[in-house]
């Protein structure tokens, strides 16, 4: 009996010690029994194209004709492309269960609210390198421009490039209204006629220059079409060698030959010779219009003005061409 009583006392003391220990660790028996915090929610999973089409069948009618649809469905390069819709929009299991939560799916519209950086990251998974090598830090990227602001991968709105407008130039005009107006001027690059596009001179996806030029300088952009102006010349015209836009407006002008001002005013911005010509050789009464009312027109003002004599104004290789007359 004494042994049994001793065992009971030992058990009671052990139980008391256990209770005190639990109280110290958990504060109270209720807290000790409380469940652990719920684990983080599991990541979304792919549900397949058929699940998407149950709600988005109208969008599929346009998407089915695009290059993206043909590649993803007929010749996918990897497991991501095999997901078709979810290759761009991300795994859709959470979106299916709660369609009103905009955080559960990646959308490519401004209204949906997916961050531009996240949208562009989806595109750059496949479309990286090449022309997009300089996209990070470019003018368009710095201004938070999204790929979907220029492109519409869900429909064939353009002949190529899956653009949002019918042509490259029309897409650029959406933001660049000033350039659109310049192309309407009397003298302009043949962009409205469709003979060239903005992309012939600019790389919208980024370049090493601030205006997104396709070469390192303005002159290097102009020379592929205007090779006769490249030189080298025996006699070089300094402003021509420095920059073509010293004299020309690159998009359009109301003056001849895309000039920034009419001749001879353009030339007189730099040239006011003290010898050879009068110091002020242009006057209003020397124009062809003034001759109709009795004025004395000057050959230095009418026609091509200074270039009536200085014909090789971009540069000359003639031994006597120091004044660009030959």
UniProtKB/TrEMBL annotation:
InterPro entries: Cytochrom_c_NrfB-like_dom (IPR053875), Decahaem_cyt-c_DmsE (IPR020015), Multihaem_cyt_sf (IPR036280), Multiheme_Cytochr_ET (IPR051829), Paired_CXXCH_1 (IPR010177). One of its GO terms (molecular function) is oxidoreductase activity. SUPFAM superfamilies: Multiheme cytochromes. It comes from the Bacteria. Keywords: Signal. Residues 188-230, 237-273 form the Doubled CXXCH motif domain. The keyword Glycoprotein does not apply. Residues 1-32 form the signal peptide. It holds the Pfam family Cytochrom_c_NrfB-like. Residues 85-156 form the Cytochrome c-type protein NrfB-like domain. The keyword Cell membrane does not apply. NCBIfam families: decahem_SO (TIGR03508), paired_CXXCH_1 (TIGR01905). PANTHER family: DISSIMILATORY SULFITE REDUCTASE SIRA, SURFACE LOCALIZED DECAHEME CYTOCHROME C LIPOPROTEIN. This is Cytochrome C. It comes from Candidatus Muproteobacteria bacterium RBG_16_65_34.
